[in-house]
Amino acid sequence: MRGLLAALLLALLAPLVAPAAHIDVVVLNGTINPATSEHLQNVIQQSENGGALAVLVELDTPGGLLNETQEIIKAILNSRVPVIVYVAPRGAWAASAGTFITLAGHVAAMAPGTSIGAASPIRPGGSNERGEDRERTDVEMEKAEKFTTAFIESIAKQRRRNVEWAAKAVREAAAITQDEALELGVIDLVAANRDELLRKLEGFQVEVDGEPRSLALAGAELRTQDMTTLNRFFSFLADPQVIALLLLVGALGLYMEFSNPGLIFPGAAGVLCWILAFMALQIIPFSGLGLLLMGAGLALMVAEAFLATFGLLFAAGIACLLIGGSMLFDVPEVSDLEIPFWRVLVPVVLAFSLFTGLVVIAVGRSNFRRQTAGVSELIGTVGRAISELAPEGRVFVRGEYWTARSDERIGPDEPVEITAVDGLKLRVRRAASRP
Predict the structure, then answer these.
(1) CATH topology for 375-430?
(2) Which range among 47-56, 216-225, 264-273 shows the weakest confidence by mean pLDDT?
(3) Any idea where the domains of the chain sit in the sequence?
(4) Which of 84, 97, 167, 240 is the most buried (most CB within 10 A)?
């Protein structure tokens, strides 16, 4: 009797003690950078330890860093829980680094209206007159292309997906829709939403950690695993567009502070922006030449305020900012990040140039304006003789009495014009009119 009661009690308590069947969900929306890579790796490890049935990665990315993509691929290929990569929602794309991640998933799925591909390393621009930079760039690009092609082919072979198309995605920047991807064997299925995806995956066969496994996901709880606040912050900073904006806004704030000492806020904001920008440049690789050109552009724009070049230095500064900004993240071996030239870089630089131009004009006018403070600004001022100047006497100028000296005799109450200031004594002459 006691044994029967014990068995009954254990049966009643078992659902309360056993962990609920669940799927961990990760949403990767943006560039692949150290923050997103660390987050996904942590979730995979947590899912292995927490008994999750699978990890669902909802992916929408324009690309990212190759090193971080490699870390993600390594974590997925060695995961002890199935990793489902789902390119979603509608309108999303798995471009560049996203193509590698999608192909690496135990299950690769896409939503209607999505696309995948264009995994070629980005080609840096620019060359000197002898073409030396172009020659070096071609060697770098060939090296990067061969490496990424071999990398994506090995992933496709591992997951038994279309190796030929995977290579074309790198060599020819091939990109396809979800239906074409399904037809070519690049992905496993197309699903409109999470519920449809899980229904289609019921009983789906995958190989996890070298062993075949049949997915049984029906009724599982979906647990969204959000980034930590710190990871979200670093992920935001690692956006090339954000870095470029921080550099330009920081430069503008510091220039306003140096032009008008004591404003405090522009200087503090400028320093903060530059601190954040250089923190971000420690996260993602950048081109030193691009950063140098941007610095030269800022220096040329500032120089316009002090040199009468009729806008030539200012125009050269804008050109340097555009060229430097377009080169800032041209590091093909480790990254496919870039700042969109026409969509982002040109509007931001032009807006910055317009605002800076107004500041430069204001500073230039103040530099060439006649002095309105100090003793020397008295030169040219007209006052009135209080006593006879023969040659010295007293004059009244702007509410003050001064000792003055004149080379000609000037009678009391006659107008005088100040021609020089000699210590605490003025040199004056007879003025044409009264003050």
Answers:
(1) OB fold (Dihydrolipoamide Acetyltransferase, E2P) (2.40.50)
(2) 264-273
(3) 12-230, 239-368, 375-430
(4) 97
Please determine, for residue 221, whether its predicted confidence score (pLDDT) is greater than 90. yes
Q: Catalytic residue among 74, 143, 157, 425, which?
A: 143
**Per-residue pLDDT tens for 35-57?**
999 999 999 999 999 999 999 99
Burial class of residue 390 (count of CB atoms within 10 Å of its CB; 0-12, 13-18, 19+): exposed
**One-letter amino acid of 100:** F
CB atoms within 10 A of CB 2: 6
Going by C-beta distance under 8 Å and a sequence separation of 6 or more, which residues neighbour residue 12? none
In angstroms, rounded to a whole number, what is the distance separating the alpha carbons of residues 329 and 336?
8
Any catalytic annotation for residue 96?
Answer: yes
| Active-site residue identified among 37, 96, 235, 335 | 96
Q: For residues 413 and 428, what is the distance between their CA atoms, to the nearest angstrom?
A: 14
Dihedral, CA of residue 298, residue 299, residue 305 and residue 308, to nearest 10: -120
Most confident of 197-211, 240-254, 387-401: 197-211
pLDDT score at 358: 76
Q: What CATH number was assigned to the domain covering residues 12-230? A: 3.90.226.10
Query: Measured between alpha carbons, how far is 170 from 332 in angstroms, rounded to an integer?
Result: 13
Residue with tokens 């962990």: 19
Cα–Cα distance, 368 to 391 (Å, whole number): 35
Label residue 232 exposed, middle or buried (CB < 10 Å: 0-12, 13-18, 19+). Answer: middle
Tokens standing for residue 426 = 């003025």
pTM of the model: 0.69
